[in-house]
Amino acid sequence: MSYTLKICCMGAGYVGGPTMAVIAKKCPNIKVTVVDLSQKQIDRWNSDNLPIYEPGLPEVVNECRGRNLFFSTDIDTHIIEADIIFISVNTPTKMQGIGAGRASNIKNCELCARKIAEVSTSDKIIVEKSTVPVRTAEAIRRVLSCNEKNLNFQVLSNPEFLAEGTAIEDLFAPSRVLIGGVQSPDGLAAIAKLVSVYAQWVPRENILTTNLWSSELSKLVANAMLAQRVSSINSISALCEATGADVSEISRAVGSDDRIGSKFLKSSVGFGGSCFQKDILNLVYLCETYGLTECAAYWNQVVLMNDYQKERFSRKMVSSMFNTV
Predict the structure, then answer these.
(1) Which of the residues are catalytic?
(2) Between the CA of residue 6 and those of 161, 166, 197, 278, what are the distances in Å?
(3) Residue 102 backbone dihedrals phi, psi, to 5 degrees
(4) H/E segment holding residue 242
(5) Rounded to an integer, what is the distance from CA 139 to the centroid of its chain?
(6) Rounded distance, CA 67 to CA 10, Å?
(7) What is the rounded CA–CA span in Å between residue 244 and residue 61?
(8) Left if phi > 0, otherwise alpha if psi is -120 to 50, otherwise beta: which for 11?
(9) pLDDT below 50 — which residues of the chain?
């Protein structure tokens, strides 16, 4: 079968797998290959026992796998043949060194860039899909520019905005697709190329284009804003318990205001998951790095309030069991 475009995604995890599966389903003219170092991970993607669970994902993978969706550990071959390469690898919080406990570790992104520069034989568009600190694209560009083949690599930012449990639904009908790139003729051409992929199923008005740095920072800010709402209503829950007010009624009354809205205004034990705290701490570190002490303290308070809510819940549980736990 002849394809109009070939895409390679480095990283067969929670973001890369579902995203590429949906691109393959919506764009049957595009060959999509997901590559990973882990043979075990790739074997799972090539079986009926997928490595992650998302409603609707098995049906999409089964429909496209072997037609225009492939999973492989042959990284070099698929990098060489690809027109567009997505980097969708883990960027955990650094556990040591400068920024430990807050900054993201972009080592895996850098390793991907080095591999691309090493084996590529033609110009390519590189797309950051991982959640990364602002200006990561600059580091990737510097690595790619060190190739001795005079190749041209355009780096784009295309952050994911997926929620666990609704990832396929989010990919089928995204509220927005954000693409950032260098505002130069080559950069704008690369943006247009990626836009043409998403435009095969996403309304053009939902595809937002911007510069690299705005795109990279938008993902961190989006998660920080959502987490802020959770911490805000949780702080009010403590006040409600002290005064006899009902926090659920407060949420209903406040959320009825169109300017505020009702989402993420349910009091709870606090936010969890793998993204919110990591991204807020990353934002705190960025603010500190640029000398914005007050901004860093503001966003750090969201995390402190979340910790307070979890501790408060634990104390109440222990107290209700007569302090015997």
Answers:
(1) 275
(2) 23, 27, 11, 33
(3) -135, -50
(4) helix 212-243
(5) 18
(6) 19
(7) 51
(8) left
(9) none
Q: Is pTM beyond 0.85 here?
A: yes
Q: How far is CA 111 from CA 14, 32, 105, 120, in A?
A: 19, 21, 12, 14
Determine the straight-line distance between the first and last CA of the chain, rounded to whole angstroms.
64
Q: How far apart are CA 157 and CA 36, in angstroms?
A: 20
Query: 133-138: long-range contacts (C-beta < 8 A, 24 or more apart)?
Result: 133/103, 133/104, 133/106, 133/216, 133/220, 133/282, 133/285, 133/286, 134/213, 134/216, 134/217, 134/220, 134/286, 135/213, 135/216, 136/106, 136/109, 136/216, 137/212, 137/213, 137/216, 138/212
Q: pLDDT value at position 173? A: 97
Q: Helices (DSSP H) in 68-208: which residue ranges?
A: 75-81, 107-119, 136-144, 167-172, 185-198
Grouping H, G, I as helix, E, B as strand and the rest as coil, residue 73 is coil
**What tokens were used for 69?**
């969706």
Whether 83 contacts 5, CB under 8 Å: yes
